[in-house]
Design goal:
- The chain is built from nine helices and seven strands.
- The chain has about 280 residues and is an alpha/beta fold.
- It has one domain: TIM Barrel (Alpha-Beta Barrel).
- The chain has a seven-stranded parallel beta sheet.
- α4 links the parallel β3 and β4.
- The longest helix has 21 residues.
- It binds zinc ion.
- Zinc ion binds next to loops.
- Keywords: Isomerase.
Amino acid sequence: MSTYLYNHLPLSAALSRLAAGGVSRVEIFGGEYTHWRPDEDPEQLRALVVERRLQVTGFHLPKEEIVLASEPKYRDALDRLKRGLRVASAVGASSAVLHAGYEVADSRYGARERLVEAVAELAAAADREHLDLLLENLPRFGPAVFGHSADELLSLVEQVASPRVGICFDTGHALVNGHDPSESLKRLFPLVKSIHLSDNHGPKPDNPFASDEHLAPGDGVLDWDAFFETLGALGYSGELVLEPGAQANMSEEVVLARSIAAVESHWRRLARKGTRLL
Ligand SMILES: [Zn+2]
């Protein structure tokens, strides 16, 4: 379960609410709107986790501009991401999730080369911390997002060529891009080491930013039967991370309960059919 659901709260409160809701394994969301900042002490965060007897499976790195930034800003962004990797390691995560950055189709600025260089440098830093670095497929909000297609991610992973680099597949992001999440997952497998599960109502061309609704699985239009069938058929054995967000029409506790119930029902259905998942 991701702390994203409680992103409006301080991290200590978010972790407490998740623990109170029966969650034992968490991914810490250190991204935009975050309740975690890179200048915070990793040991303090570790203490928050240990006190609540939580296991941290992954750490979502903050969103940083590592492609089109000027040289000093680029180095600062990389430094903050490396601090994030140290925190991920301190709290016992086995992987860190990275948003790769901005569209790099315009090669005049050497943007593509810079992205490869940045991810390679972060992969080396992740390796020193015994972490996998997972690139997430992103929603295509305007022209400025890199990694919205499977092909882009695959070519970047190939160019960086580090055994530490894999993919975090986000079901909701695939859906808002108008892709079939099951087909996208098949394209990216076996590089996928973690999956973010959330639902939405598909692309909203008039307001793309509102399309990534982060609903509980089953509360949008994603075909979860097909998606879980695909997981079973592929023999997926990586992390499954529920990543719903706070909703206006129900409490976070209801969103949490609905998310867990949805995944459990698909799990049971697969088990009845003899498919072992995880
Ligand atoms: Zn995600």
